[in-house]
Amino acid sequence: MPVSNTEIGAHSFTPWREAVSILPPELEERLERLGPDVLAALEEIRLRVGQPLELCGQTGSAFLHSVSGTTSIVADGVIVTSAHIKHVLAQITQFSMYAVEEELRRGFITIPGGHRVGVAGHVVTDSSGQVKSIRAIASLNIRVAHAFPGVATRLRNALYRKQDGRPYSVLIISPPQCGKTTLVRDIARQWSENKLVRRTVPAKVAIVDERSEIAGCIEGVPQFAVGPRTDVLDGCPKAQGMLMAIRSLSPDIVVTDEIGRSEDVTAILEATHAGVSVITTAHGLRVEDWRMRPNMETLFQSKAFDRYILLSRRRGPGTIEAVLDEAGKPIGFGGGPSC
Q: pTM of the entire structure?
């Protein structure tokens, strides 16, 4: 039977408060009237000029009603204006777009609490075709970050070698918005806090956080709990960061997110050959899907990963569909069935 976040003892805080606070006062007030239960389930708040404000969550999406509550009818929704967009941008940039120019090149800005605000508008490129900046921003996607401390606990027995407690290298596979980053963050935290298995010498963890999603750093300081023995390379390209960490931070475990490039493969193989465990994620429904992507078959054939964890949203984000061994065969986990 698949397992969801609610079944593995996870609990969330109230991350929506900081995310909602960047909205114009009239929109913030309307949202808060929806109540904490509705807001706690929020995953995205989407603002598009000339369109109704959209709220996305586990059960689907709805528009903020112009009077009260939510609606599925476009004409009844609160229409987003350019002034609304400008207010949010002023809040998240502290009135200085120049200060966040580098983040804008990546298409988003990270705010306190680890939330990310994705932006869309007119993209300006340089002479080489690389993104230089985004101007005339007309759409914002406030992605509400959720932390579920303890979400990795049920998987404990699938995360280390029984003989000596050595961390396994793990690849978490799922479609978007199924809880990959949430899970990988909690695995990192629990290893860092020496909770997954009691080790005489606790594991040192290095997080290479290219998109500032795992640790959610602001000026280098993690906004999420990632543990006392964790170092974070924030905004650093994955492949370069993994090699930097191995050479300078002496980690037992390197954690990163969404592998896919050929240079990622090279860095992962170098890490595993150096005795460093790698915990990371990739998009896909099954191991077979992931293996068909360019360069990924090399990792599978080399047995770079000891465990594969498959997630879905079937019973809510973080539903554990299966745990597989290095050969892609199902195994049990946490004292229960794997699927």
A: 0.79
